[in-house]
Write a structure and sequence with these properties.
By secondary structure, the chain is α/β, with parallel strands linked by helices. The protein has 3 domains: 3-88, Gyrase A, domain 2 (2-Layer Sandwich), CATH 3.30.1360; 122-390, Rossmann fold (3-Layer(aba) Sandwich); 414-584, Isoleucyl-tRNA Synthetase, Domain 1, CATH 1.10.730. The protein is 56% helix and 11% strand. It has 22 helices and 14 strands. The protein has helices at 3-19, 46-52, 56-70, 90-100, 133-151, 167-179, 185-188, 192-216, 221-227, 229-242, 246-270, 280-297, 331-346, 360-372, 406-424, 432-452, 464-467, 475-492, 507-517, 519-529, 532-552, 561-584, and strands at residues 30-32, 41-44, 74-80, 83-88, 118-121, 156-162, 276-279, 300-302, 308-311, 319-323, 350-356, 381-386, 389-390, 460-461. The chain has a 5-stranded parallel beta sheet with strand order 7-6-5-11-12, with helices on both faces. 41% of the residues are buried.
Amino acid sequence: MTITDRLSQVISQTLSDLYGIDIQSADIQLQDTRRDFKGDYTLVVFPYVKQARKSPEAVANEIGSRVKEIMPDVSGYNVIKGFLNFEVADEYWLRFVADNLGNPDFGMAHARGTEAPVVVEYSSPNTNKPLHLGHIRNNLLGWSVSQLLAANGANVKKVNLVNDRGIHICKSMLAWLRFGNGETPESTGMKGDHLVGKYYVEFDKHYKDEIKQLVEKGMDEESAKKEAPLMVEAQKMLKRWEEGDAEVRALWEKMNGWVYAGFDETYSRLGVGFDKIYYESQTYLLGKELVQKGLDMGVFYRRDDGAVCCDLTADGLDQKVLLRSDGTSVYMTQDLGTAQLRHNDFGAERLIYVVGNEQDYHFKVLKLILGKLGFPWADKVYHLSYGMVELPNGKMKSREGTVVDADDLITEMEQTAEAMSREHGKNDELGADEQKHLYHILALGALKYFILKVDPTKNMLFNPAESIDFNGNTGPFIQYTHARIRSIVRKAGQGSALAVEGCRLGDKERDVVKILHSLPETISQAAAAFSPAMVANYAYELAKAFNSFYQDTPILRESDENQKTFRIALCSCVANALKNTMNILGIEVPERM
């Protein structure tokens, strides 16, 4: 039990004993004491003065006196109006470091293995284009949230839904047939996902030309978009696919195979993976069955044109199409089927969808329709809605080819990491293979940290030049801090056994220990908020506090052997905490650089 847990319990009991105030320890609000006041934790007593019928200062002094009497680890307290500041004894902080020195999993919880899993879906790419910067934020956020929930004790299953069918896929297929001249990844030397993406852009270019020609002949633009020959042909191809046409299916399998090989390579470079992959082509039929179930139940209705809809106007939404008039599926169709399939597969405690905020409406509809179909687990669906990634010159558009390609970005980041490492002389003692690995993990550390340190709900502006820096709130700064600490520990050697008796804590040592102490609570709060940003900023605060301590305090040069041993132990604990928190972000920390 931490000092804050114990404090909350004693304060709860004290309020009951002194004033008859009934409040659970979990509801006691303790804050870190402001740096301009003496103390470690602050209790605001104003909420209790009315029932206590005493002044804020009197209530604070009475609580402080009783707590200090009961808790030896509270060395003192002071009162500033209605603010009660508790001072924690050095002995507690010293014991805390000693107790956790040999615990590599400090701050991390472990799943018991018996609870229902939390299923986290992320990535969800379309097989008509390669992964881009927007996909990177999705993948990094999904992976990190999964790691974060696991660190908080959840049994997590990471899944991916590949959108491998639909009109957008047919566009790439049709463009390749019309304009591709039999190109393959092997004949062009292109990754398969890049090659297919090339023809998605090609379709859009020719499609716009057709629209322009029809408008020039007097057709209105909306009609031209529907009647352009390429779009009509793509719609026919989609219908043939759903009817199982052998020729269309063979082309679909070939081109999707190219894309999957490309995706796998990118996922490997990003360091993300999945426990199970679902494919829309395997789930949309189950979705169609659920649509029929809804018709049979009277939950859905069929329009005069044959389309099947769900009337959500009573829920403040609109009429949602679930099957088109030609009988083909929409995204909602397959999402209904996928949701039921996942529940059947895992019996999940929660189904978390990591999808951008442009799909907020979609997931409101999904949850409502699952409920109307009578699924009791509909309320377990949770949309982890995140903001968009924008560039200095605006939004990306896949159809127009104005995207930041994921593979190109990773390569560029690696090249930048190499240039900056050489400039700072961070790799002079490493062999060639070690250098190459270092550049890769620094590049990914910079990329992942820059993206994950931003609150998921916020839009973000990505600037690669700002992300790779060995100073400031960046991944490489934290990675370098870890390497520095590991170097100190290596130089210290085995040393003597840790004995904290007689050790003292300087202010900057205390700052480091207090931040270490807050790691379990940080992980718990971050998991509740689905926010890796809280973990990222914790890692930065810890690294910053350590560097301040390192600059101010002798470690290996300390003449007092016990004090020296304690400071080396503190270094080890900090390195361990940085490694664990960065691991939650999917970032590897180097042992040396």
